């Protein structure tokens, strides 16, 4: 055996078990929706920590794991983040976005107001690390956006599997997030996720997902 390697222990399923496992997973994940109406009901720290462990198990370029997750529960910090995000979002809606972009967003009922950043019990700020610092040296990371994007996919799925809801919030630009949270210069804001329980009576847009024949083909 090559030095530095260990035996791989795969999940062993019969053909029928494979299909049942995938069916159950699909039936759970297809119910996932982006939610903007949150309850202020707290979420146990241990639940969020386990969600982050799942996100941290994602593959990454050269196994550099170029991500950092900051969980924000302090009401003062959440208010600062909301105010900064709304300033950028208002500028987006009033000056930066094209008419076509705003037209595409209209069915989702979204605008520059982001009350969920105050109400959700936790915000998870995801940072992408373009390089690591070790012994005063810069050590390059590889496929950073791809790696962090995959980790965020794991993160969003884990939030849903825990019976919680979230929303992928990407105010642009997001430099304010690093300033408010005091992150180092090698970390760039990637995504902001409010996390919690849905508000009583929460609603979501009536949209459809593309069918399998629309998103795939066989050759």
Explain how this protein is built.
The chain is of the alpha+beta class and 219 residues long. It has one domain: 3-Layer(aba) Sandwich (NADH Oxidase). The protein is built from eight helices and six strands; from the N terminus they run H-H-E-H-H-H-E-E-E-H-E-H-E-H. A four-stranded antiparallel β-sheet has the order 1-2-6-5. It has a two-stranded antiparallel ribbon with strand order 3-4. It is globular, with a radius of gyration of 20 Å. The model has no long low-confidence stretch (mean pLDDT 94).
The radius of gyration over CA amounts to: 20 Å
CATH topology label = NADH Oxidase
Q: What string, H for helix and E for strand, traces the elements in order?
A: HHEHHHEEEHEHEH
> What is the molecular shape?
globular
- Strand arrangement across the biggest beta sheet: 1-2-6-5
Strand-pairing-aware structural class: alpha+beta
Mean pLDDT across all residues, rounded? Answer: 94
CATH superfamily: NADH Oxidase
CATH class: Alpha Beta
Give the helix proportion (percent range): 40-55%
Number of helices: 8
Element layout with pairings:
Elements lengths: L14 H15 L15 H11 L11 E6 L2 H22 L2 H7 L10 H4 L2 E8 L1 E4 L2 E4 L3 H18 L3 E2 L8 H7 L5 E10 L15 H4 L4
Antiparallel strand pairs: 1-2, 2-6, 3-4, 5-6
Helix pairs in contact: 2-6, 3-7
Give me some keywords for this one.
219 residues, alpha+beta, 4-stranded antiparallel sheet, two-stranded antiparallel ribbon, 6 strands
């Amino acid at each position: 055996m090559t030095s530095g390697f260990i035996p791989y222990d795969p999940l062993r399923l019969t053909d029928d078990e494979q299909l049942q496992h995938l069916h159950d997973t699909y039936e759970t994940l297809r119910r996932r929706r982006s939610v903007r109406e949150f309850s202020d009901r707290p979420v146990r720290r241990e639940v969020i920590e386990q969600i982050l462990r799942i996100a941290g198990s994602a593959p990454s370029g050269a196994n550099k794991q170029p991500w950092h997750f900051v969980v924000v529960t302090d009401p003062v910090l959440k208010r600062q983040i909301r105010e900064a995000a709304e300033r950028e979002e208002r500028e987006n809606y009033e000056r930066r976005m094209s008419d076509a972009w705003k037209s595409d967003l209209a069915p989702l009922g979204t605008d520059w107001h982001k009350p969920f950043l105050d109400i959700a019990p936790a915000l998870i700020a995801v940072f992408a690390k373009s390089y690591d610092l070790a012994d005063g040296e810069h050590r390059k990371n590889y496929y950073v956006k791809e790696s962090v994007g995959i980790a965020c996919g794991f993160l969003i799925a884990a939030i849903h599997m825990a019976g919680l809801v979230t929303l992928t919030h990407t105010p642009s630009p997001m430099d304010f997030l690093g300033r408010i949270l005091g992150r180092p210069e090698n970390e760039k804001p990637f995504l902001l996720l409010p996390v919690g329980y849905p508000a009583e009576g929460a609603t979501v847009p009536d949209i459809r997902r593309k069918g399998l024949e629309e998103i795939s083909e066989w050759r």
